[in-house]
Amino acid sequence: MTNIEKVLSRALRQAEQISLREGLESPRIHAVVVIGNDELAREKLRVDDGIYVDIVSDSIFIAPGTLDNIVYRLLAGYFALALLNTFNKLDRERALLLARRYFFKVFVDAVKEA
Fold it and tell me: pLDDT (tens digit, 9 = 90+) per residue, 99-113?
């Protein structure tokens, strides 16, 4: 497993713990896919620029970027799926708010332990 994969794996585990604390139903993530362009995610739900989710497979599709951007996009996608699982609707604003609220701690912890 590469260092980037370790960081993303750790970030996903932390996102699961956070979603439980926030009272959300955690999704079972099937895949995290870094896409080359937004055309590949055309049929997915758009959370924000470069962040898409597939509710059928509980997968997250994110645009490439720096490691911090990738972790932020991963968190936003995860929380979007958790909100969908819990409330059966996409709440983009809350997903992005949760991603911003917890990003720094998750990022630092994930990088430190990778």
Answer: 999 999 999 999 997
Class of CATH domain 3-103: alpha beta
How far is Cα 21 from Cα 86, in angstroms, rounded to an integer? 13
The separation between CA 25 and the C-alpha centre of its own chain, rounded to angstroms, equals 14
What does the domain layout of the chain look like in residue ranges? 3-103
Instruction: Quote the Cα angle for 39-41-45, to 5°.
Output: 130
- The DSSP letter of residue 27 is P
Give the C-alpha distances (Å, rounded to integers) separating 7 from 14, 37, 53, 72, 80: 11, 23, 20, 12, 20
pTM, rounded to two decimals: 0.94
